[in-house]
Amino acid sequence: MLLLVLNNLCSMESEGIVIRIKTPVGDMDSSVDSPSHLNFSDLLGAIKEVMPEATVTAFEYEDEVGDRITVRSDEELKAMLSYYCNTVMEQRINGLLPEPLQIFPRAGKTPGIRNIHGLKVNTRPESSSGRGSSAADSRSSDSSLKKSSAELKKILTNGQINEHDLQYQEQLGHGNGGTVYKAYHLLGKRIVAVKVIPLDITVELQKQIMSELEILYKCDSPYIIKFYSAFFVENRISICTEFMDGGSLDVYWRIPEHVLGRIAVAVVKGLTYLWSLKILHRDVKPSNMLVNTRGQVKLCDFGVSTQLVNSIAKTYVGTNAYMAPERISGEQYGIHSDVWSVGISFMELALGSFPYPQIQKSQGSLMPLQLLQCIVDEAKECAATPLPTAFS
């Protein structure tokens, strides 16, 4: 099934497409004979020919729910073409004629009118004196808490889904303080994933959930699951996200190199996006990597994520089996900790089993001392299993 999922990515390599450039003065259609060879700069050049007076540095397209997705690079262009490819396939299955790929140029302002209001920015460095730092930290902390509460209130108030709009179909999984269901949204006419979390949980778990809501609300990436809404019912909160019909990668046994390579690209791009927002995932593992039959790979479950700028934590957070050595030994951690977890995850997907066979990964948990001995101390009796010889 996974091969079917990812082979959809390249089904239009030999077909031509029509790109419709939407401009303020009208539409312009452009034919592309070989979409697989199209790059971002070529398409941007075509847009500039249509809009010679504008400063165009990017363009947008609309996804299945009408949201605008910005394209600024070759990678994002490929994601757009992959999305369009799947849309065309669905249209053909339903007996419809494929529509052109519509893009919306993003024109920047000319230098003469960029700052007509005389906006100024204070660039003076902060005082090197430590005077008043405690009070400042306190005010900053209070402000951060207020911002979190305000953002959560906005999410819950403006949500587009409520309990009465959903028809629950089946339970998908359980963990991290809640249960995940597959449900049908009546008004939106689409399948969604609903994570239902009871409120009688620890304060620490409540903080993790708040963090997850904020991160999902801010994220806008084709490699991160989409957040639709959240709502309260009695003593529980429900978080609605997009449904990935291929499930998580932990249910697939051994994945061939050419398929795993594509998965790796998507996962790394998703993490790079989070890191650009100064966010650590902190629970990277195969069960948090989702796939669908449209050939997409996305990251989910940020219940143990945190802002990089506020993180100096040394506690054991996340799934122990995928912990980086510095986390096991109690040192500070950062992006490299996520990278370690990615490496362990990809090794497991390539081998079809956990790369440290001597470590019992039952229930995704084990003693830190056991990990410390095997990984940090590099004990010979529990060396990692090498990759298959067929891998390059």
TrEMBL record:
<keyword id="KW-0723">Serine/threonine-protein kinase</keyword>
<dbReference type="InterPro" id="IPR053793">
    <property type="entry name" value="PB1-like"/>
</dbReference>
<dbReference type="InterPro" id="IPR008271">
    <property type="entry name" value="Ser/Thr_kinase_AS"/>
</dbReference>
<dbReference type="InterPro" id="IPR017441">
    <property type="entry name" value="Protein_kinase_ATP_BS"/>
</dbReference>
<comment type="similarity">
    <text>Belongs to the protein kinase superfamily.</text>
</comment>
<dbReference type="Pfam" id="PF00069">
    <property type="entry name" value="Pkinase"/>
</dbReference>
<dbReference type="Pfam" id="PF00564">
    <property type="entry name" value="PB1"/>
</dbReference>
<feature type="domain" description="Protein kinase">
    <location>
        <begin position="166"/>
        <end position="392"/>
    </location>
</feature>
<keyword id="KW-0808">Transferase</keyword>
<dbReference type="GO" id="GO:0005524">
    <property type="term" value="F:ATP binding"/>
</dbReference>
<feature type="binding site">
    <location>
        <position position="195"/>
    </location>
    <ligand>
        <name>ATP</name>
    </ligand>
</feature>
<dbReference type="GO" id="GO:0004708">
    <property type="term" value="F:MAP kinase kinase activity"/>
</dbReference>
<keyword id="KW-0067">ATP-binding</keyword>
<feature type="compositionally biased region" description="Low complexity">
    <location>
        <begin position="126"/>
        <end position="143"/>
    </location>
</feature>
<dbReference type="InterPro" id="IPR000270">
    <property type="entry name" value="PB1_dom"/>
</dbReference>
<keyword id="KW-0418">Kinase</keyword>
<dbReference type="GO" id="GO:0004674">
    <property type="term" value="F:protein serine/threonine kinase activity"/>
</dbReference>
<feature type="region of interest" description="Disordered">
    <location>
        <begin position="114"/>
        <end position="146"/>
    </location>
</feature>
<protein>
    <submittedName>
        <fullName>Dual specificity mitogen-activated protein kinase kinase 5 isoform X5</fullName>
    </submittedName>
</protein>
<keyword id="KW-0547">Nucleotide-binding</keyword>
<feature type="domain" description="PB1">
    <location>
        <begin position="18"/>
        <end position="108"/>
    </location>
</feature>
<dbReference type="InterPro" id="IPR000719">
    <property type="entry name" value="Prot_kinase_dom"/>
</dbReference>
